[in-house]
Amino acid sequence: MAIGLTHNIRDDVVRYVRESIPSVGHVVLALPSGGSSSSAVRDGAHAEELASQLSQYLRSKGIGLKAENRVHVFLAAPNGFVFCFGRKMLSLPYWTLYEYDFGSGTVGAYSPSITNYGRR
Q: If DSSP codes are grouped into helix, strand and coil, which group holds residue 119?
């Protein structure tokens, strides 16, 4: 899942996925209806609403509910949204969050940062 609220990260994520995790079946791209920008998330309530919509979408599709369809999450979003979405992701047992290395200057400079292997 490529969540591009502040920047459209589609091409960068697709490149990384093809090269580093080719087992991924498809990329879900989440962009705001008005386009990616620094003002795409208005406030905390809006961040919570967007996070709820995304997590409901994932659950409705059964994404991340089984180990074989783990959600790989790439984000370009304000911290408030990331916090809200992180709380919603707790209901999905199988996910990995990726971090982008801004200092590298390399396209697709992601690395896994946090992985949830499911409830035990």
A: coil
Taking the chain, what is the end-to-end CA distance rounded to the nearest angstrom? Answer: 24
How many Cβ atoms from other residues are within 10 Å of residue 116's Cβ? 16
Give the pair of three-digit tokens for residue 15: 């490149």
**pLDDT tens-digit map of 32-88:** 989 999 999 999 999 999 999 998 888 888 776 776 778 899 999 999 999 999 998
CA–CA gap between residue 57 and residue 54 (Å, rounded): 5
Element (H, E) at 52: helix 44-61
Q: Are strands 71-76 and 2-4 parallel, antiparallel or unpaired?
A: parallel
**Distances from the Cα of 25 to the Cαs of 19, 29, 71, 87, in angstroms?**
13, 13, 11, 25
Specify the amino acid at residue 103.
G
Half-sphere exposure of 94 (CA within 13 A, CB side): 11
